[in-house]
Structure formats: structure tokens, C-alpha cells
């Protein structure tokens, strides 16, 4: 009987270890969201219809230049980084900047070494170089005219997002497919469209500074 008891103990041990590993895998999977540009809505500093007034001129100018609704850009900015109020503008899977571009999408997927989810380590001087971006077919835009297309510069990031969305159908009215290309997950598309439609119907402009002051005071 003793060998049998020992065998049962091994079975119980293997079962317990398997259960723990399964739980760990589920936890990790739930921590990394689908798509190439993850969302981090960990702060809810804004009501569903609120947009910081400080960004409106950039949204509108980029929307006009690329023939897409400015409210679409606001919606993407809201979902991606809560209007750039997140503690970090870098995601665990490698998306960067105000509008959460994967580096390969920003500089171009023809860039040497680009593959997988696009989180290739690209030297900053090349990632932000307009000539390099043009050579490799990227979406990065030097909107502020400083000679660099910088995903961490708000104006550049918004214009780059406008470039991407317009190029993928939004300029022709294909808003949903364009959003899906930005992040290929249905839940993401639904989130963007929810804010986009809300802003179209009843947008309320608020002060970004006042929102932060209210949060600190609370």
C-alpha cells in the first residue's frame, strides 16, 4: 500500500502544479490586451463626453489636413492614453507616444528587422527621421516643423494618427475598418466608436489643468 500512497501523492502534486500554472497563464493573458496598440484606461479623469479644450486646435487642423473627423482623433487619443494623462506613454507590448504607435508602424514595416507585433528596437534618430519614414513607408509626421517626426510630441503624434487613419479608409468614410487597422480587436473598435459618436453628439470641452487640479485636491 505504501508505494500506491506515494504514487497518489505524486498525482496530487502534479495536479496542483498544473492548476497553478494555468492560473498564472490566465492572469498574464488578461494583463496583455489584444491588438498592436493596447489601451490603458486606468484613470477616469474625464466624463464620457469630455475633451480637453487645449487639444481641439490640433485635432481640428489634423482632421482638416487629412480629411477625417477631428472627433475620431479625439476618440483615439482618449482610448489610447486618456488624453496623455497616463503615467507612462509606453505600453508593455512596445507601443509608444501620445497615440500609442508600434515603432514599425511609425517608421514603416519595411524597416530592417521589423516583424512580429512591430515592437522592434529602432534607434531614435531613425525612428523620428522624416526621410527614413518616407523610405520605409511609415506613418510618422513632422507636424510641428522641427525636422523630427516624434511620437512623443503631441502635434506629431496626432498628425501621424490622422495620416494612418486617413490612409486606411477613414478619409473615404470607412471609419470602422480604419480603426480596426489601428488596433485589430473588435472591443477596441467599439470603444473608439462609442467616444467618436458621443463627441459628435454632445461633446463638452473642459480644461485639462482643472481636471488635474481637481484630482489632486480630491
Question: What would you note in describing this structure?
Answer:
The protein has 218 residues and is an all-alpha fold. Helix 3 (70-81) packs across helix 9 (186-202). The chain has helices spanning 2-31, 56-66, 70-81, 103-107, 124-127, 130-136, 154-167, 175-182, 186-202, 208-217, and strands spanning 50-52, 204-206. Residues 22-43 and 213-218 have low confidence and may be disordered. The termini are far apart. The chain is globular, with a radius of gyration of 22 Å. It has a two-stranded parallel sheet with strand order 1-2. Helices cover 54% and strands 3% of the residues. It is built from 10 helices and 2 strands, in the order αβααααααααβα. The protein folds into 2 domains: 1-31; 35-217, Lysozyme, CATH 1.10.530.
Sum up the overall morphology in one term. globular
H and E string: HEHHHHHHHHEH
Number of H- or I-type helical stretches: 10
CATH architecture of the largest domain: Orthogonal Bundle
Low-confidence stretches: 22-43, 213-218
Class from secondary-structure proportions? mainly alpha
What is the CATH level 1 assignment of the largest domain?
A: Mainly Alpha
Give the distance, in angstroms, between the N- and C-terminal Cα atoms: 66 Å
Calculate the mean pLDDT score and round it. 85
Computed CA radius of gyration, to the nearest angstrom: 22 Å
The count of DSSP E runs of length 2 or more, i.e. the number of strands, is 2
Main-sheet strand order equals 1-2
What is the subunit arrangement here?
single chain
Largest sheet: 2 strands, parallel
**Count of separate structural domains:** 2
Roughly what fraction of the amino acids lie in strands?
under 5%
Task: Specify the helix fraction band.
Answer: 40-55%
CATH overall fold name of the largest domain: Lysozyme
Amino acid at each position: 500500500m505504501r508505494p500506491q500512497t506515494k504514487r497518489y501523492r505524486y498525482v496530487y502534486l502534479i495536479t496542483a502544479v498544473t492548476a497553478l500554472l494555468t492560473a498564472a497563464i490566465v492572469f498574464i493573458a488578461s494583463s496583455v490586451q489584444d491588438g498592436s496598440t493596447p489601451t490603458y484606461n486606468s484613470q477616469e479623469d474625464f466624463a464620457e463626453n469630455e475633451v480637453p479644450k487645449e487639444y481641439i486646435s490640433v485635432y481640428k487642423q489634423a482632421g482638416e489636413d487629412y480629411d477625417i473627423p477631428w472627433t475620431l482623433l479625439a476618440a483615439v487619443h482618449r482610448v489610447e492614453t486618456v488624453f496623455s494623462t497616463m503615467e507612462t506613454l509606453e505600453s508593455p507590448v512596445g507601443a509608444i507616444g501620445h497615440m500609442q504607435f508600434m515603432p514599425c508602424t511609425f517608421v514603416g514595416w519595411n524597416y530592417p528587422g521589423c516583424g512580429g507585433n512591430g515592437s522592434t528596437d529602432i534607434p531614435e534618430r531613425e525612428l523620428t527621421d522624416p526621410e527614413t519614414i518616407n523610405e520605409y513607408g511609415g506613418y510618422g509626421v513632422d507636424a510641428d516643423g522641427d525636422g523630427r517626426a516624434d511620437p512623443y510630441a503631441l502635434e506629431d503624434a496626432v498628425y501621424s494618427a490622422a495620416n494612418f487613419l486617413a490612409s486606411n479608409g477613414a478619409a473615404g468614410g470607412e471609419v470602422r475598418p480604419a480603426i480596426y487597422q489601428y488596433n485589430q480587436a473588435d472591443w477596441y473598435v467599439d470603444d473608439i466608436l462609442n467616444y467618436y459618436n458621443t463627441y459628435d453628439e454632445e461633446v463638452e470641452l473642459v480644461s485639462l489643468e482643472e481636471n488635474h487640479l481637481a484630482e489632486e485636491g480630491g
